[in-house]
Amino acid sequence: MSLHHLAEHPRQPLLDDTFLQRLSREMGEGAEQLDRDSAFPHGNLARLRQYGLLGLACDVRAGGGGADLAQLRRVVGAVAKGEPSTALVLCMQYLYHRRLADNPNWPEALKRRVIREAVEEGALINSLRVEPELGSPARGGLPQTVARRQADGWILDGHKLYTTGIPGLTWLAVWARSDDPVPLVGTWLVHRDTPGIRIVESWDHLGMRATGSHEVIFENVQLPLEHAVDVYPADQPPALNAPALADFNRGMATLLGAIYDGAARAARDWLVQWLAERTPASLGAPLSSLPRVQEVVGQIEGLLLANRLQLDALSRQALSSQEAGLIKVAVTENAVSVVEKALELTGNHGLSLHHPLQRHYRNVLCGRVHTPQRDSALVLAGKTAFGLVKG
């Protein structure tokens, strides 16, 4: 099936190896320039929309792709091999749609609208959670973003950091609290075109430079009452749904792991070609002929094999949250190690801006920042081993 034919049938994309390899190449065509300019990948996302991939995780009954986690992982990995910032935006889209499908708290009309717009228009959604005062909510605490209750709705004020994809988002799922004596805490849904939203273009990081993860400031943003889509009293948090939480954590670890594994595979491919072509005059043969070089490349192959097997298991088996966290950490560290070994073999050449290896290195390092971070994952695993928490 050609890419043109695929675009005509966006609900049932053919996710075979040929298509995914071509997708990686297409995503990677402008990757160097996106990195240099810290520019948002609008073109890549338009291509993903054309191929029907932005609604791939949506319920098939709503016209979506109905893809399972293993299929989503393959797509995210293929995109990441070409351009990982695009893959992170796509990853967040998939994670939200997977969580939304079985969320009973959302008003049905809003849920249907978000899914329909994703399928028909390629509308993007992401959560906005991190704040200057609070930091990552994964570490605990109440948000400082406040929704003030009005007779006919809400007025939202607040400041969010690291809002991945904001230049292209249609829907902002904002973590906030109400101004009630006992505040409601949860998600208020904001359309990007609502007045009072201001973007501060502050994203200028070492890696994943094209994610557009700028700051967003909300000033007197007016919302309908029903846009408090998933909230609860702060002193009455909902009962823990352990299977749902484990499934979300498994999905997050799988798709985030696929991003950085994809970047490492791009580094591996470039390295193998460079070593096969690089022929120092003193050697009179390609560097790939040296046993030491072959050994290090063999180590790289072993790390990537371990990643593939772990991500395969994670995407297909109902593993626990602590197991998912351990795999995410292992896959991320393996990805970093792959590119570090490549840099050891290439020396100054690998650090040159004329070659992509330095870009792959800067990108894989960002995998350590995403939840669950190394310390959290290891502490949870340790507590589980001691029987202090359930797996």
TrEMBL record:
<dbReference type="InterPro" id="IPR052547">
    <property type="entry name" value="Mito_Isobutyryl-CoADH"/>
</dbReference>
<dbReference type="GO" id="GO:0050660">
    <property type="term" value="F:flavin adenine dinucleotide binding"/>
</dbReference>
<dbReference type="InterPro" id="IPR046373">
    <property type="entry name" value="Acyl-CoA_Oxase/DH_mid-dom_sf"/>
</dbReference>
<dbReference type="InterPro" id="IPR006091">
    <property type="entry name" value="Acyl-CoA_Oxase/DH_mid-dom"/>
</dbReference>
<dbReference type="GO" id="GO:0016627">
    <property type="term" value="F:oxidoreductase activity, acting on the CH-CH group of donors"/>
</dbReference>
<feature type="domain" description="Acyl-CoA oxidase/dehydrogenase middle">
    <location>
        <begin position="131"/>
        <end position="221"/>
    </location>
</feature>
<dbReference type="InterPro" id="IPR037069">
    <property type="entry name" value="AcylCoA_DH/ox_N_sf"/>
</dbReference>
<keyword id="KW-0560">Oxidoreductase</keyword>
<dbReference type="Pfam" id="PF02771">
    <property type="entry name" value="Acyl-CoA_dh_N"/>
</dbReference>
<feature type="domain" description="Acyl-CoA dehydrogenase C-terminal">
    <location>
        <begin position="257"/>
        <end position="371"/>
    </location>
</feature>
<dbReference type="Pfam" id="PF02770">
    <property type="entry name" value="Acyl-CoA_dh_M"/>
</dbReference>
<dbReference type="InterPro" id="IPR013786">
    <property type="entry name" value="AcylCoA_DH/ox_N"/>
</dbReference>
<keyword id="KW-0285">Flavoprotein</keyword>
<dbReference type="Pfam" id="PF08028">
    <property type="entry name" value="Acyl-CoA_dh_2"/>
</dbReference>
<protein>
    <submittedName>
        <fullName>Acyl-CoA/acyl-ACP dehydrogenase</fullName>
    </submittedName>
</protein>
<feature type="domain" description="Acyl-CoA dehydrogenase/oxidase N-terminal">
    <location>
        <begin position="14"/>
        <end position="93"/>
    </location>
</feature>
<dbReference type="InterPro" id="IPR036250">
    <property type="entry name" value="AcylCo_DH-like_C"/>
</dbReference>
<dbReference type="InterPro" id="IPR009100">
    <property type="entry name" value="AcylCoA_DH/oxidase_NM_dom_sf"/>
</dbReference>
<dbReference type="InterPro" id="IPR013107">
    <property type="entry name" value="Acyl-CoA_DH_C"/>
</dbReference>
